[in-house]
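tl;dr need the bound structure. longer version: we got a ligand (zinc ion) that a collaborator sent over and nobodys looked at where it sits. i said id run it. heres the input, straight from their email, havent touched it
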Amino acid sequence: MKTTLGVKDKKDKRIVPLIVLCLTVALLCVASIRTCSAYVEIRISVNFILDANGNRPHPTDVNGNPEGNFETDQDVRDAIALGNEILSTCESEFRLELVGDIDDVDDGGRFFADEWTDDTWNDVHARATNPDHSAQYHWRTDAINLYINEGPWGGTAISHPNSRMFGMSARADEVTILHETCHILGMVHTWNSPCDDVAEDHNSQAQPWQTFNDIDIYTNEVWGSNFNALTSHEQWLAENTFFNVMCYRTVRDRLTPCQLDNMAEGGDWYAYRGQVFTDLPIYINSDRTGGQTGNFMTPYHTLVKALDDESIDNRVLVFEGGNNYTLDRILNADTELVPRLGTVKIYPESSFQASSISVPSQSLGESEGFRNPFHLEFNESSERVSASTRNKHEQRFKK
Ligand SMILES: [Zn+2]
């Protein structure tokens, strides 16, 4: 991925040491992933359930043609990457992090062909967490455990909110890993959504596999008009809903700002956040008043207040909004900054060393539209560091 520093003044003497230090930070990150996660990473451990002959799922359709989307390790990695591309595009502070090896569960074909229902989930969970079988099921307490089988139809998947496990069929589509992870953090389907940037979606379950060309079917259900006849606001709502990660349609590539707020709030109360998130988020929002705990619902109001939190090491500072944060000390390399909404400008008071800030390397100076909106600017006169994101509410997604 292309990475360039957004340095305005090429004569700035800080450039060379800055680059050296940034490279050093990057190398340290490679050596010590644990303390350098660039986002709030949700750890996921993936396992294939084998059949009675020790084979991985290889589902076929009625004509015998392969229809598995998850059969190889690479299939899993591609799905994780797709989930992260969606989270990046939506400007979420969360990312999916595949942990450990992608393992196989060899239990004589048990659960291999089961449809993922509540009963199946309960049975697999009971066996995987049983001390007699947890090693066989590669159960991890520090991650969400995903079990992939050859469930019979439609690519069923099931998760339970506030749990550390979900199951899905190898027939499920790639977005399912992100979809179920969102459920675990408490997010609901579009047809139950409390968000006002998601429209009605009462018929989504009845017609789950609509493709892009079917959007008029949907808009006629909700507005009685084809997509092109809608107002721009209605079109925005229609696209937010029709292509939403939390529906059942074929093209699912987005989450709305309100849904991302739901996810952040879900992260606050998620029972296993201390184990499953690689680093915990600390939210900062200078526009807010009231209590300050660093949670999404009760963010710190100032950067200084957040840094005074003694538990700040190995946490991710998420700038949720506001502007003009003052920095009164040098940040250590374990401090990650993730601007999530609006524009953030950080003003150092004295002896500020920009190079001591560790930011997502893939975000530095990227200029590919909204995909990597975070950038740093160094201005010699004010020694200002600014990190800005596009206004989320203006964002439009590519189809
Ligand atoms: Zn769902």
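gonna send this back to them w/ a short note. The pocket of zinc ion is lined by residues 179, 183, 189 (CB under 6 Å).
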